[in-house]
Amino acid sequence: MTTTDADAGDGTAAAAARHPQEPDADPRSDVQTVTHHAETSPPAGVHGYAQQKDAHIKRLRRIEGQIRGLQRMLEEDVYCIDILTQVSASTKGLQSFGLQLLEEHLRHCVADAAVKGPEAIDAKVQEATKAIERMLRT
């Protein structure tokens, strides 16, 4: 899968409209819809990733292209090991994205909480710790 394959897509929203996603059927999954912590979150658009938003979107589109490539590989009856190699690459891409987002959260949101006082710091550290736990389970 090349970057041009991934970037050739017409965007996440259009792809989602053509291929609606099934709801998560795994009751053990603790992936939730967007949560908002009104007491501890900054206003919309002031998140730690705000300065890198365009780069993040580009990166996610590349990962989306890798996933589409997996679908094509199955349709074309590609050898199992080659598909597993692509699964590994896609997984590592998502993990790397998640770690970068976590770092930005720590640098921006947790640092911002430090100015607000000990309770805000504790809340943000606890929130980050739970996010790390979820990432480690994958």
Helix and strand topology:
Blueprint: H1 3-7, H2 12-18, H3 53-75, H4 80-116, H5 118-136
Helix pairs in contact: 3-4, 4-5
Biased composition (Low complexity): 1-17
Subcellular location: Cytoplasm
Keywords: Copper, Cytoplasm, DNA-binding, Metal-binding, Repressor, Transcription, Transcription regulation
Q: Can you give a write-up of this model?
A:
By secondary structure, this protein is an all-alpha fold. It has a domain at 52-136: Methane Monooxygenase Hydroxylase, Chain G, domain 1, CATH 1.20.58.1000. It contains five helices and no strands. It has helices at 3-7, 12-18, 53-75, 80-116, 118-136. Helix 3 (53-75) runs antiparallel to helix 4 and helix 4 (80-116) packs antiparallel against helix 5. It is elongated, with a radius of gyration of 18 Å. The two termini are 23 Å apart. The model is unreliable at 1-42 (pLDDT under 50).
Number of strands: 0
CATH-assigned fold name of the domain at 52-136: Methane Monooxygenase Hydroxylase, Chain G, domain 1
- Average predicted local confidence, pLDDT: 74
Tally of contiguous helical segments: 5
Task: Give the low-confidence spans.
Answer: 1-42
- What is the name of the CATH superfamily of the domain at 52-136? Metal-sensitive repressor, helix protomer
**Biggest pleated sheet:** none
- CATH architect. name of the domain at 52-136: Up-down Bundle
Region (Disordered): 1-53
Subcellular location: Cytoplasm
Family: Belongs to the CsoR family.
InterPro entries: Metal_Tscrpt_repr (IPR003735), Metal_Tscrpt_repr_sf (IPR038390)
